[in-house]
Design a protein that fits this description.
single chain; 572 residues; alpha/beta; Rossmann fold; 8-stranded mixed beta sheet; 5-stranded mixed beta sheet; 16 helices; 29% helix; disordered N terminus
Amino acid sequence: MKLFGKKLGKKEEYSWYKFYSKNQRNIEVPNVSLYEHLLNANKENMDSIAINYFNNKMTFKEFLSEIDLCARAFRSQGIRPGDVVTICMANTPEAVISFYALNKIGAIANMLHPLSAEEEIKHSLNSTNSVMLIAINLSYEKVKEIIDETSIYKTVIVSPSDSMPKLLKFGYILTKGRKVEVPKKSENYLFWHDFMLKGKNYTDKVLVKTTKDQPAVILHSGGTTGTPKNIVLTNGNINAVSKQAEIIFSEVNNEDKMLTVLPLFHCFGLVVCVHVPLCLGASTILVPQFDAKRFDKLLTKYNPTLVPGVPTLFEALLSNKHMEGVDLSYIKYAISGGDTLSVQKNEAVNNFLKEHNCFKHVMQGYGMTETTGPVTFGSMGSDILGSVGIPLPGNEVKIINIDTKEECKPLETGEICISGPTVMAGYLDNEKETNEILEQDKKGKIWVHTGDLGYFNEDGVLFFAQRLKRMLIVSGYNVYPSHIEEVIMKHPAVLNCGVIGVPHPYKVQVPKAFIVLKGDIKVTSKIKSEIKEHCQKNLATYMIPKEFEFKESLPKTLIGKVNYRELEKENS
């Protein structure tokens, strides 16, 4: 492969290497599981805080003890190495404990959005061959409708209050808790406390030695085509990000605190906000539900030194009316990912931080779930305004011409392609789609074709240009219009459908659906309600169109496809 950059001695170097010392340019990924890497990283750090949940704190010693008990509980219920267990949870200690406990016994965690619709839950359970489910109680109403159509033989129900301090737990039960439907305890359903008790009587060995190449977790994305896929990430993929973080976050230690508002079913939330800080000896502050209006209270209550977020989170910071006079000098790193933060917003956040005694810049990164999150990051002095930084140690990025597939020179825009230790194992049971996004070069190196456009400047700093694929970013979540269209088209009254993104003051974008009904079917309030209910049953909450517009026909391109650009023009 042709490399642009300067020849230094006998070896040709990437241009971004100038930002790293020779010892920082590559990483060695440990050949162990996520659990063992976490354990090895904290052997001398057992008394430090690992988990903070509403100020109910757990040391690393207590955390690892809970993981061990949970691992025993899983084994007592018949979970074996290689089995898939779905975790359908908000950000709670039980979700994190379950994740590492499954990894300890060689099982695989399938991380699922708790706001997923019934059909999405059923599809995820069946397509991953899940045998057990750990679910937040708020999901039970949907789970009970589909559980008999899956291979799940045991469901553990968790309340957000299970790990809350006593007074807060009492308040939750009196207000929200008593309104939530839960199952009766039975052979098929257990509550968290009862599940963990099962582990106390299991005395066999539970630790299973696994390698860096073995699957650890299944996350979800639309890839480059927009259809839902199960992304398999290995122990090595996730541990590689941890090793990269040791270099770029070299100042982080056991006194640091990560504010984890990004969800665990999101790669950014699970990898960057949980595994990375824990492996660096820092604590993670778990926030199960983010309220933009109360963002100031989160900051003043916990004083987090590490604040990662999607652009909407930083917009919430700017618009919060209670931030006047709040001192943010304790923040070491403010990290934006999930989507690009515009130059204007970036400058606004930087100025906001400065006005609140924090003299740090927001550091942007670029990546995707298929690359275990961040591939580039504005670290080591590469955080140029408008850029997404330089490749992390061990990663390689090239820009190729879309037509010729030749590598572009600096300042030439082309498709972003990625290689390195964080590239996924593939899409589960989907060789065709895997082969469309992953390509092996003549040297045997695997490259991800991202479907995104960008360019390098002459120093090897990456600038994101735009997406080739149809995709919306709604509050940091990837939303694929083609998937929404496919669901709406299944309604018997719908002839055709087109979905676009429309601006939203807080979520950045939300979906809007344009619908053509069949034959002589009239647009009535009954039809409108039916289609909306159909979407509520089959789409996650954040995917449901915020507006439905009914038309006699949709604009078409010369080859007869829906003209989405025309729809966008009509809506501007």
